[in-house]
Amino acid sequence: MDSDRRRRQRTRSQLNEFEAVVLSGTGGVWTVLADSGERHDAALRGRLKQDGNAKLAVGDRVAVERDASDVNAAWAITTIHPRKSKLARRAPSGARGERIVAANIDQVVVVFAAAKPEPHVRMLDRFLVIAEGNDLTARIVINKVELVEPAVVDALVAPYERAGYVVHRTSVKQRLGLDELHEALAGRTSALSGPSGVGKSSLLNAMYPELTLRIGEISESVNKGRHTTVGAVLIPLTDPSGGFVADTPGLREVGLWGMPPEDLDRCFPEFRPVLGSCKYQDCSHDHEPSCAVRAAVDRGDVSAARYESYLKLLSDLPDPSNTWD
Ligand SMILES: Nc1nc2c(ncn2[C@@H]2O[C@H](COP(=O)(O)OP(=O)(O)O)[C@@H](O)[C@H]2O)c(=O)[nH]1
Ligand SMILES: [Mg+2]
Ligand SMILES: [Zn+2]
After folding, report:
1. Superfamily of domain 88-254
2. Which residue intervals of the chain bear CATH 3.40.50.300?
3. Which of 4, 81, 265, 292 has its CA at a distance of 20 to 30 angstroms from the CA of residue 75?
4. What residues line ligand 1, using a CB cutoff of 6 Å?
5. Portions of the chain given CATH number 1.10.40.50
6. Which of 141, 215, 247 to mutate to test the pocket of ligand 1 (most atoms within 8 A of CB)?
7. Which residues have a beta carbon within 5 Å of ligand 2, which is an ion?
8. For domain 3-82, is the CATH number 2.40.50.140?
């Protein structure tokens, strides 16, 4: 931030208003980070609240004003600025609205381990489809690479690299690949996802030692019947170029709810070159004759495992109450 902008910011905060980003909170009180660097608790102004708190998400850029009338927080969020992107769960058919997990996300970073726990490619494919379904770029991190032979990692990631995904091979233990990953996160807002135990917190601590996130903790994911909470937290990165990481423990529950089945094929980037070449325009690439996607699988242009993931997800889609597992 240049000094002019900082001075303006200071002046504005003396006027009891400031611009900020939402770091955490789910309904009620939200923690916001002012552009000047201060953190405050703030509540949604009543007018905005009528739309429901679900409308605000971590990562949202907001305008905040002092509010003496609210007993919960001395600050009120008066404006939610337009989002440039969002990671959202589409509403189950029939329900109103959508649930926004995080706003203004630049990329999704999907972390798996080469071993301990064993990588689960079907789950990896689900994470990638969620990113694609939200029009977000995804990159893949395979951590704990020191536990297996390099050829094992190469075989694991080959279909993804072929599909165009950037894959980071990392080891916190041997400090491998950390600089490249650090660079990929700098100055951007990244949604970090992956199963627990793969080393997400360890990676962040290794790259940003001042974070001191707890290792070996199962992050909280609350999913209690109707009151589903997908609580993401935005962590500011102490990097000269800035950036945030959104820890999105609930991304698994984001599922693919509400995604129309005909949208699924586009969420597999390696299918895209042949989409439109099937005999039937509404081809589901499952059983239809003269299917260009199946032909690409037969030629070896699309990996059989990725195609199987597609079929599995397709068969999961019609039931809107489907969760991930
Ligand atoms: N062998 C090995 N273990 C790791 C590596 N990175 C993290 N771990 C371990 O994996 C476990 C889970 O790590 P954690 O960061 O809590 O995973 P998270 O649940 O994804 O945040 C801890 O015991 C870490 O010490 C690595 O590169 N190699
Ligand atoms: Mg963790
Ligand atoms: Zn087809």
Report:
1. P-loop containing nucleotide triphosphate hydrolases (3.40.50.300)
2. 88-254
3. 4
4. 143-144, 146-147, 171-173, 196-202, 215-216
5. 261-316
6. 215
7. 200-201
8. yes
Q: Which atom of ligand 1 is nearest to the CA of 206?
A: 6
From residue 172, give the alpha-carbon distance in Å to each of 141, 144, 184, 205.
Answer: 12, 7, 16, 9
**139 or 254, higher pLDDT:** 139
Residues of the chain with CATH 2.40.50.140: 3-82
pLDDT in tens, 235-264: 999 888 899 999 876 565 556 666 888 999
For residue range 79-106, list pLDDT tens digits in order.
Answer: 999 999 998 876 555 555 677 889 999 9
Architecture of the domain defined by 261-316 = Orthogonal Bundle (1.10)
* pLDDT exceeds 70 at position 54: no
pLDDT of 318 reads: 61
Ligand number, closest to the Cα atom of 219: 2
